[in-house]
Design a protein that fits this description.
The chain has a single domain (about 60-195), classed as Glutaredoxin (3-Layer(aba) Sandwich), CATH 3.40.30.10. About 40% of the residues lie in helices and about 20% in strands. The chain has helices spanning about 1-30, 35-45, 100-115, 130-140, 190-195, and strands at about 65, 70-75, 80, 90-95, 120-125, 150, 165-170, 175-180. The chain has an 8-stranded mixed sheet with strand order 1-8-7-4-5-6-2-3, covered by helices on one side. Helix 2 (about 35-45) packs across helix 3 (about 100-115). The longest helix is centred in the N-terminal third of the chain and has 30 residues, at about 1-30.
Amino acid sequence: MTETKKPKKKLKREFIEWGLIIAIGAVLYLTGLHTEVIGGLQRVLLATGIFQPDTELVESDFKKAALDFPVYDAEGTRISLEDFEGKTIFMNFWATWCPPCIAEMPNIQGLYEKLEDNPDIVFIMLSLDEDHAKAREFMKRKEFTMPLYFPAGRMPGVYSSTVVPTTYIISPEGYIVSEKRGMAKYNTEGFREFLLSL
């Protein structure tokens, strides 16, 4: 009699455990917090330094950047990348629904804080969110101070990536000198030196 009670107790406990796991997953999904939780887990991977941006591209591989790309800033003012001609541009395509984007953003914020006073380097955090208010709210809630932008027209072909996030580094001469598809650890001494060397 004792032997039959044990499996029933074990089975009941497993049902409760799985019920809790499913309930927590459902709550995270329904509240939209699942992307931030997954992003937090991916941030641990990012901290290992496994994902690094490429800073050693061969000059013959450089592509001409499309600077005639109109964007809106966070206040809705329409500008163009041409306004930043002659500067180094760090342009990151991201979205609030993208866990790897959320994972790398604190790292990019750290890089931005170290370089924001440099007038020769421009940061463009280009949100792909259709709901601009959602992206603005996310940046405010996370206390990210990086400049937020939104596409104001069709994406030029040179920036056509099916991967989010994707980061482009554009040299003052107007060439894409680094392109990273997927998340990466940018706030490193080596990457800062790379940006400053341009």
